[in-house]
Amino acid sequence: MKYGLIGEKLSHSFSKPIHESIADYDYEIKEIPREELDSFMKEKAFSGINVTIPYKQSVIPFLDYIDENASRIGAVNTVVNRDGKLCGYNTDFGGMKMLIEKAGFSFKHQKVVILGSGGTSKTAHAVSENLGAEKIITVSRRGEINYENLASLHGDCDFIINTTPCGMYPDTDESAVDISCFKNLKGVIDVIYNPLKTKLCLDCENNGTEYAGGLYMLAAQAVLASQLFTDNSFDVKKITDEVYGRILNEKLNVVLIGMPGSGKTTIGKILAEKLGKAFTDTDELIVGEYGDISDIFSEKGESFFRDIESVAVKRVALKNGQVIATGGGAVLRSENVEYLKHNGILFFLDRPVELIAPTDDRPLSSNFEALKKRYEERYDIYLSSCDERIENDGNPEKAVRKILEKLK
Asked: Of 42, 44, 56, 274, which is the active-site residue?
């Protein structure tokens, strides 16, 4: 391996496409069990590596040199092999600082709570100090300040930084804290970038609290690390903005919700082709596995269908880079909406009910009266679930143009 990332579990990583878009080198993702870290570091068979959970502190004893910033923090995320000498750096510091600044958060004279006690937590502490925080609280599972007593002791905090893996793919249902317990909260930083929005971020969204996920930090620290790998000088902000935008567009799911017959499949296929993304229809997945939807309703009932629909939605929603057409009733379960929002932006295709033709293969809207009833029952749910509403008069290309304009 010449360049790459080492860690224990890396199925969530976006580092390969990010690095390979910054400079002309191959970048490898390498999972290393704890018992093999010693031999890997002693062998020194690499030119430059990034280091992530749980090895940001573990690699330090193997280094011949550690720069002042990384030494002060006590964590290393970048190691460069210079003629057999291993040199350690912390580009997470610059990446996190750029993320906080991009979010528009001012830590000066503020109380900051940091969730987690590992290497990234130490970086968050150093950055918070650098940005003028007045009080910094570190939370750990077994510390004096822990997740059980945090809200009662420090519910008045101004900012929270999550440095734990809680909520990271594939365990996206988890959140380290209940955001509603912090009444003075001005903002949240979550360093997790997969999913693009963690449960913590979505809770902030629902609570009206400002937040930022970790993708921009990932891009920024990668640009800084690439400078060290290649000994090149970059316009870090410019390159970071470009890389971030490119990766976000690549990884983002575009999700279509709306009534049966509103054009989700037709518009979705056109949109997928224009965006260069895969197209997925959750109803088609269900039919492929269980058979005709009308038969499922008649033989096993709506509750069974909604259960298997939720399974299909979750499976699809946790992947990246797709256009997803959902079933008309997928939004009836709030957990489905949350799954889809982890990696997606939701567009409601709002087609007037008069322009939707009832068909026999739609169990709950097989005639116009039934269709109109479903429309009236669901309309407000579509509106509250979507990020953007798209009027669809039956011209698919026109609707696609509207969506593409919103995506800009």
From this structure: 56
